[in-house]
Amino acid sequence: MSAPLVIAIIIFIVWMLMGAMYGFQHKNVFLFWKKQKKDIDIILFYWLAPLIIFLCVRGAIILGEHREAGQRATEVAQQIDQMFKKQEYEKFPALLTMMEAAQTRLNELNIFLVELSLGQSNIDETVRKKLELLESEKLNSDYFNNARSMILQVSQEKTFESVEEIEKSIKKTQDAIDKLQKITTQSKIYSKAQGLLNQGNKNLIELGTFLEREKINKTYYDNVTRSSDLLVASTKSRFLKISELESALAQISKMIFDLNQIIGSNSIFTEMAQTRLTSYVKDESELRQLILQEQEKQKTCSVAPEKCTLPPTFQFSTFKDSKELYLTKTRSSRVGECLCPYDIKASGETCGESSAYYREGGDAPVCYALEPSAR
Asked: Which of 7, 52, 229, 252 has the most neighbouring CB atoms within 10 Å?
């Protein structure tokens, strides 16, 4: 209960008590009962005067409350206009809460009394339009801030570990672009959104180009590893003819060419390609020397048959690298069995070359996904 209303009630009670005392003193009137007709004016005075005063005070209080609510709504509407002029979009949430509270308060009051107390009209319509505008701009601001955060995050991702990471960045950028495209042309932040949208589209094009290039590099790398594993498996512990050595040399040279293509493009596969390239260059050099030796031996074979020996075997230096570093394991490591190189001995050491996989004779266990099922 407000202070003016309490005061009015106290005055009303005091007034009634004073009237009662007056009636007792004159013994001819007690506010609502009279002995003489002329006392009717006294009764009316004592009844109507406090009632009129009470109604006036209460009316003033009501008008004051309506005026306060109307002024609050008007102030918030003015703050919204100032916010748009100064582009203080971070104040959207707070102003939206304030405007919603003002709208709720106006709905509880008589809007006619609000306008009467302020001496103006259409306050409710103004507040309603401001509230709609603010709600719309709050949504646009959320779209803008979320999109800006995603685009900034993608821009800071300067290195990628895999094609999948590039695809995730592309999806994130596309999501940001979709949010920016939802901002209407009537929005106050439309021009800023368009600038951010242009940056997002530029990033999307760059990422798309990068992805296509890395897909090509991945194809190169996958082909190299597959060819290498098949070549190693097919030539391991076999006597090779010159034609087989020359074929292996051609394959090694092709793989070196593909790896150089990857390294030259500064790819995410560059480090892995560089590791393989070192082994392949070594294999290529050794193969060339072996072929030359075999060709010289073939020349002297018809003259001195005693110098003819069995064709050579060739152990690729890439064998261990391709199996242990790059191929997908067919299962997890086991302790004590030593079937595969990555199994663990009872002592805690890796089985490595002491595993059944490396033993000569018979079928070795299939330990890697990309190798042939029979070796």
From this structure: 252
Query: Which residues are paired to 29 by β-bridges?
Result: 34
Tokens coding 139? 């949504």
Find out whether 127 and 144 touch, Cβ atoms under 8 Å.
no
Phi, psi dihedral angles at 34 (to 5 degrees): -135, 150
Between the alpha carbon of residue 148 and those of residues 93, 137, 171, 174, 182, the distances in Å are 18, 16, 14, 12, 14
Question: Is the whole-model pTM more than 0.85?
Answer: no
Residues in the chain, total: 375
- Exposure string for 315-337, b = 16+ CB within 10 A, e = fewer: ebebbbbbbbebbeeeeeeeeee
Locate tokens 């261990």: which residue?
320
Q: Which string of DSSP letters, residue by residue, matches 74-126? A: HHHHHHHHHHHHHT-GGGHHHHHHHHHHHHHHHHHS-HHHHHHHHT-S-HHHH
Evaluate whether 188 touches 230 at the Cβ level (below 8 Å).
no
pLDDT tens across 80-128, in order? 777 777 766 677 777 778 878 877 887 777 777 766 667 677 877 777 7
CA distance 16 to 47: 8
Tokens describing residue 114? 């609000």
